[in-house]
Structures
1.
Amino acid sequence: MMQALRMAVLMLAVMTVITGLAYPLAITGVAQLIFPHEATGSLIKKGDAVIGSSLIGQYFSKPEYFHPRPSAANAPSLEAGAPPAIGYDPLDSGATNLAPSSKKLIENVTAAVKSNQPDNPGRPVPGDLVTASASGLDPDITPDAAEFQVPRVALARNMSEDQVRAMVAKCTKGRTLGFLGEPRTNVLALNLMLDEAAGK
Amino acid sequence: MHTTDYLQFAAYAAIILATTQPLGRYMAALFSGQKTFLSPILQPVERLIYAICGVQENAEHSWKRYAGHLLLFALIGTITTYAILRLQHYLPFNPMGLPGVPPDLAMNTAVSFNTNTDWQAYSGEGTLSYFSQMTGLAVHNFLSAATGLAVAIAVIRGFARKSTKTIGNFYVDLTRGILYILLPISIVGALILVWQGVPQTIGGSVDAQTLEGARQTIVLGPVASQEVIKELGTNGGGFFNANSAHPFENPTPLSNFLENLLIFLIPAALVDTFGRMIGRRRQAYAIYGAMGILFIFTLSIAYFAEAMPNPALTQIAGYDPTQGNMEGKEVRFGLADSVLWAVTTSGSACGAVNAMFDSFMPLAGMVPLVNIMLGCIIFGGVGAGLYGMLLHVVIAVFIAGLMVGRTPEYVGKKIESREVKLALFALLATTAGTLILSSIASVTPAGVAGLGSAGPHGLTEILYAFASTDANNGSSFAGLSDNNIFYNVMLAATMLMGRFIVIVPILAIAGSFAAKKTVPTSYGAFPTDTGLFVALLIAVIVIIGGLTFFPALALGPIVEHFALSAGMGY
């Protein structure tokens, strides 16, 4: 029995060293060497200041920016009287987990449809713009949802709709290899490009 | 729905089919003690490990000793993980200065990772230090997967051998599984994932000032090394709360496709290994066929159910329903990727998610639930899928034997009352556990307090939690608030039961088969490598699962489906 116990403890110790320390640390070393940008979170910097990650969505509400999807990623605020949660908090990734039959889901979607509709009256609001993502950090919207917002952004920025559309196209990726995943527009990349074009 | 969806499903199936034989052959050689192409590099390491731990490479064990070592090893592992989580504030690699994990959550998480369940009551980014993630959790992604693999190999030996008492050496099987299979694939896979954008750093989180001037704390970590084994070992516990829906765990459609392939890679190949090691490859094809048919069947149901627009939303004026149900889904994955993943993660015992099942349409969400209730045997968990399926095979052969009126035989072994009793015990004890414990949760205040949804969907959340932990799957209908003493304790008990009440009887069956003579196939015995047997096997699985769980399903997702169609909300 003691011998079996000793074997179990030693095996756990050896495997912890191999798979729990040597393996992740070696991968970290190699990854930092060959893919330093990706391994540290695909950060986007302006000078020395980090403005975000190209993979992590951000909250946008101003009319001159493209808006992301609703997000349920909210770390509970500890301060009294804190502003209402707006999502896109990487400290608490996650979804609403609302059931398809949930009344709360219908309320959320109805409210989101109402707030989006003035952007493009007469067009129905694309589904992804009014539903929360799985991670709460979705960096993308569908090209359809980007197109829906083009008139508002163009108006707010004094640009022609076609100028804005050209930028949307540049920030839109098709299906990988033609069949994997879905076409998508990266919101942060698009808004950065708009700011750069405006000389910001 | 789009034609590219079908292309993607076809490409997925084609790649799994193409990798089955080469990997199956490799594993058969490895566990038969032959040299592989990695032996020149790895054999010295392997020998060194045996020398340090005092393992005698050629000393084989009876099923009782094999099971004894396995249980002791799992016990030590669970206690160690518990200690690491409780004490993480005294340990290194804690750049965010997180405090120790509370006792009930630490216990639940320790059991969860040591049983290959990876049920996520914890929220990784806000609770666990990098040290806890690497040495408390990721280690067990390797160890619990290798344990499952070892059990499957021991069971295969039971069928392959005759008139012997031994079924292998647990520590040798464990070490080989890690060194020769899990680690090499993980190393290559982790680097591919980093290339796609999965972070791999031990630096702390980064504060960003967003374009609109808000503060955003970007949480990083050694994600890629953990992500790859999470899928490959069919573990499923995420580095982040959002699991593989999180853009840092799964940034692109390509990373998604690769991670999804990793889920079925070993379980599918292991069926081929079974055929090779027992020297009857057609028998393995029959099992593979049954799994494949169930896979296509469940994928079709989930896909068409999820593609239906949600009638509760289509009635909202100004809402465009053409994208389908996007609540709880990521734009880069959309419908097809999310549904394919849901079916593979539940068919296997992986349990990682890239979309939230809680927000799936009722019948689409029922598919992963049913896959899990059937015991995760559609290719299944690493090792666990094959040995779980073999339990059903024993029952199917027994029923066939009753029908043709002869002593049932399977691959040259007579199946007698001891094996049938053990197989039935394993199947019934776990399913009864799921139902009894979820009934307790659905009628006690502590259980109902955690519900995230009202109405039938609430029952589905509870059912899913117990079915998932029982099958050591670990995915969830995450609306259920499960990080409290009631659920942490109840679900930890379910995980232990679902793991070890299956492993011990199946090892006993292995021991009993190994001791039997191999009989030549007798005239009139029911052939187990034909289409008829495949049909019978599927029927047994569906009937046992159906009879056990249909009433509960009728009260949960099925009622919700009809209520939703009738315009009722909760």
2.
Amino acid sequence: MKKNYKQIPIGGMITKAGNSEEYKTGDWKSFKPERDEKKCTNCLICVNYCPENCIKVKNGKLNHFDLDYCKGCGICATECPFKAIVMELDTECEL
Amino acid sequence: MTELTGAQAASFAMKQINPEVVSAFPITPQTEIMMDFAQFVADGDVNTEFVLVESEHSAMSSAVGASAAGVRSMTATSSAGLALMFEILGVASGSRLPVVMNVVNRALSAPINIHCDHSDSMDCRDIGWIQLYSEDAQEVYDNTFIGLKLAERVKLPAMIMQDGFINSHCLQNIKLLKDAEIKNFIGKFKPKQSLLNFKKPVTIGPLELFDYYFETKRQESEAMISALEDYKIVCKSFEKMSSRKYSAVEKYKLKDADYAIVALNSVCGAVKDVVDELRINGEKVGLLKIRLFRPFPYDDVLNALKHCKRITVMDRSESFGANPPIMSEVVNSLKNAKKINSVIFGLGGREIFEDDIKNIYYNMIKNKKQERYVGCRE
């Protein structure tokens, strides 16, 4: 829930360290990544390429995309050697 | 009584405030202020860190940085210098930093001109700074303290204007206050948050996009409106100390006046002389002098002028293709533009004479068409 003008510090001042986590940049995306589990070999090249560090790994395997921070840039899809990631229109995105 | 120029009055006020940081770049006719203040620094009269910068853009940036760090910072400028600062003026007000600046009004280029008009400070009227205008050296001196105290109360920067040369370079008798009185009046500057407060670390001046910028500006607007009430409180405590009474507008022989002239800064002195002379002949004329231009005291102006039959507003700056700044605000106050004449005078230091002011008055009472430009060759 975004705050109104009476609820925020004056002059845009940031009073809490690390509050960029509260900024869900995932709002910006128009396309979201979808993984084809049959094609994915869990090579994790996409993890290294993701500029937002939002491809999450569990027990050495790709677990999920953190869509709160994924901006939909599509680098993961471009770099995947097995074409296991496809960018699809994010129908929930705010247009 | 002490003899000081308007510029010296400003630098003497700065000496008594003793700000932690002053940054400056020379420009006519402001230079006198910083020249004097540099002497105070050299003589050890102040503890100020005096930062000599390479431009006004840097002077304001340095003042903003110091204020964000948590100390009092001041500077002064004129004309092109103020124009060069413009970008950072918005950073000071947008970040809610109470920087205080003396502005010596001078015309803007082109054509290049060193003399007085108000085009420099009027161009900054919508940038979120409190604006106080001063008729004489005494008001420059007093407005500097009032401006500082008000700025720190509402957390907005303040500029204190005086007319270039007419006020800044003319010796006038003024009443000074004692150092201890000033120290007591302004108190210590203790911002709740600042960059150098390591116990409560903050970021000042971050990015805000479509989702928060609007709310931050809304806060700024509310703060500026609240400054109207705060100004009265500050003036009251100033009066207690100095026995000098200030208000957002000064009403000169206006109570029973049928006709009013509205003006600000040094021309008010000449207008008062003309009003006195006309009053001897039984003319019912008065002057409304505006001291506080931002925030604008709409109610005070309405109450002061509503009984007048006709009004002429004297602006010393243009708003090309629109009503000039003071006239616009007077129209907004009265919501009845029919009885208001507008005059633009004195651009680039062009002199205005008492006869010109008398003509303005006679045009007003005879309901004759007032030429928009007085003192300009048609």
3.
Amino acid sequence: MTNRPKFRPATLADAAALSVLVDIAGEGAPNRLWLDMAGPGHSALEVGRARARREEGGFSYRHATLAEVGDEIAACLIGYRLDDPYDLSGFEELPDTFQPLVRLEARAPGTWYVNVLATFPEFRGQGIGMKLLDVANERAREADASAASIIVGSWNEGAEKLYRRAGYRPAASEPAILPPEFPQSGDWLLMLRPLS
Amino acid sequence: MALEPTFRPATLADAAALAVLADIAANGLANRVWLDQAGPGRSALEVGRQSVRRPEEVDSYCNATIAMVGPEVAGCVIGGLPEDLYDVSRLDEKADVFRPVARLAVQAAGTWYIDVIASFAEFRGYGLGSKLLAVAASKAEATGAAGNSLVVGSWNADAERLYRRCGFVPVAREPAILPDAYPQSGDWILMQRPPT
């Protein structure tokens, strides 16, 4: 590794990079959601950037920590403490694909939930993901969370292995509901990591 | 209120913002092309960002000038000589939706062709578009090009009006082939203006 990453909170100016990282972590599912929100003939990427600029919500820049290498954004961590008790009202109105994920979140109330962990291709294989998972544990301690939590697709073996190496262990699973043309299939796994 | 933007060449670090701006300028058509290239279950935004980072692409950061307002990217203009941007013998390899645009662009050989001109929502309505057009004029002058050219959709009446106000006149058109779901329809119009 040539260049040590530096970590900093995200700002509004980082919204475009965050929207790309969110879509990478979500394997293209966020873009589908933004396409629906934008409607035909409008830019879904503009919607994604606007979502990252919001002060609230799962993809808000306010919940994001960036890893920078040199003058470039290399990776991001977006996470926050899940409510305890976890409120499942309005659950039925969620798109099908998100329901299993929310059901798993509801199994980890009070944990610090890693919603997005993603690295741009040029910066993969340098251990930045592992470092960001350690940042997640620091944030979790600061937020008085009971543990750190993350959800991974069972088809995403590389990521699951990384999370195990970081100390995460499977705690629950739900069958994944993915768009029919997606090649991926399997379960969503909720994994937890103790804070000490 | 007037904005006081500053202009600078784009760098690799701007790739995510440029991908969003390219998609905004193209009414979401860029995302459609990147979705096809990515395939289901993969991130089209990652593909778009990678595309912008390649020097040989039309929308490359190498061809881009960024408008900054404070610490934020507000907009951009991307372009160059059509004969440098496009390989005339390989226009058939362009995605269907962009082929008519490329065919028009190469008719404007010798001009400094504006492939993307766009600003983010927060910075619209402050005259940034005409300032970016002035940047394009100075690019034409600096490269010895015979003025500027661009392609606009006939459904994009506001943009066309701005271009007319800034000295552009229509010189050719091609029927637009847009995705079925699109509410827009009409022609792509090639516009040119002499050196200013």
4.
Amino acid sequence: MTTLDQKPASSEGRKDPWSQMLQKVGKHQDREAYHALFEHFGPQIKYYAMANGLASHAEELVQEVFVSIWRRSCLYDWRKAAASTWIFTIARNQRIDMLRKMQRTSAEMPVETEDLWQIPGENENEPVTSLHRLMSERRIRESLSHLPEEQITVIAKVYMENKSHQMVADELDIPLGTVKSRVRLALNKLKVILQDQNV
Amino acid sequence: MTRHHPDSLSLMEYSAGNLSEPHALCIKLHLDKCSHCRSRVDTLDSLGAVMMEQQPKVTVSEGMFDNILSKIDSEPADEPAVPVIPRVSALQKLLGEDLNSLPWKRQLGDVSVLDITDRFPGQKEQVVLQKLAAGGKAPAHTHRGEETTIVLQGAFADQKGVFNQWDFVVLTDEDEHKPVAVGCEDCITLSVLSAPVKLTGTFTRMLNPFIR
């Protein structure tokens, strides 16, 4: 088994340890690998739940996410998404789903959460892999360390506290335009803005 | 104003899961057909994963993993472990197979509308389908607030260009346009009006993005 005591610093184009483990869960229902994923991602997901207002349901969310990981792991393809990206999107969807179910009955939801928010790599039309996908987490991790704090703060509020750009502006008491320009600067450096041809 | 593709800021709000359901639907319909934007969202999803990894971690209760194991063990063996990937798109679930046979309400001239806000309970935005008859013209108009539109069928053109099926457009009150349906099909669009609005008879008509 792979050593778990450090963050997987994957080399480009190769599977990182978490992705390997997730694949073992998918292929062989490997419970040891599943446990390792739980130890690593469980505490992150619990924080995620707490940060965006689900404090009293944080553990419930962690549990839902892991049950979902187990069920869907056979669909996971490491060539299409890194395990952490895949798990992040499952956590995001379970959070959305939990909030939707708290707010209304299933009869009121003709469209399911996953019809609206897709898990990467589960679109069967998707051609197998693009290299940038495998590289992107590593590249993002490296680029983030060079971003000014004010840009990271804004991105963290959007992703972790699920605040809209407008809500971030209100909270930090800065104009919406400033929030947007910080996000754009950051996304530029992270090369997320690949070719925004729509100006 | 965003034309043809969603801008990176909207895609980021989508990836973070912060958009309302109607807005998420517009983005998702576009993503289903646009690999370029899908790949941008993949990168943004990775940004989300890295942000989550860099936050504090909170210890989970002891015994939780065992609870999870007993939960997965209690699932009936004959039930497929894998959720069936939906073959029916969100659009079909909402509107059925044939957009043309919906109960359209004819408005001025070549324009018909159908308000589908009630399909999104609990959401603040107004959601409207519009149909511009093939070759038809909508009167010149501007937009109030912000309006996100995706082309579901056919195409329309205005001074700024041609918008084909699955193109994405965001218009604001600064955009005045005079759309014309091009091609031999009726042009059908789905629009989300972000500002909460009062739905009164005449006002509804004024909100119609083709005629406003």
